[in-house]
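Anyone up for a design puzzle?
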């Protein structure tokens, strides 16, 4: 009996103050293999179903690290080899591709638009300085024998090496 009532104050362990094992990262989800953070890349077009299936977790963070390393590399060709970017490959449609150049653009979002009800018009608002977002956009330009093809890092890494 304790303080006028009779029950155990234990939290599931051996004694009144003991606790059961919390497990790996007790504040994490039970599936510890999944990353805690997910980033959505800034894209001009919505991803296709195929791109969605092969999307890499935190892809925009991987691309940002690639851009940072590439821009600082004294030997761009060796950096591309270390990153396993194919110089020649075959696209999913069977086209043979050859890497021509790596393009890095600096992008700053300085305004936002909000569509009005019905979607026929929109409202534009310039962003205050603290809300302006800056990022670098990466494109790997391959030639398919007729025209250049712009690929992102995931697309280039998925080429079948020839």
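Challenge accepted. My sequence:
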């Amino acid at each position: 009996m304790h303080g006028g009532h009779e029950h155990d104050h234990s939290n599931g362990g051996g004694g009144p103050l003991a606790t059961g094992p919390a497990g790996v990262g007790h504040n994490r989800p039970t599936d510890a293999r999944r990353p805690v953070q997910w980033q959505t890349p800034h894209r001009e077009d919505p991803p296709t179903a195929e791109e969605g299936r092969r999307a890499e977790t935190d892809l925009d963070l991987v691309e940002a690290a690639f851009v940072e390393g590439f821009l600082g590399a004294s030997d761009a060709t060796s950096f591309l080899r270390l990153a396993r970017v194919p110089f020649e490959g075959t696209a999913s449609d069977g086209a043979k591709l050859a890497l021509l150049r790596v393009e890095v653009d600096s992008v700053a979002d300085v305004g936002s638009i909000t569509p009005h009800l019905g979607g026929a018009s929109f409202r534009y608002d310039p962003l205050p300085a603290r809300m302006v977002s800056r990022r670098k956009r990466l494109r790997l330009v391959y030639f398919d024998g007729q025209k250049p093809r712009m690929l992102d890092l995931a697309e280039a890494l998925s080429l079948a090496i020839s």
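A detail worth pointing out: The mean pLDDT is 79.
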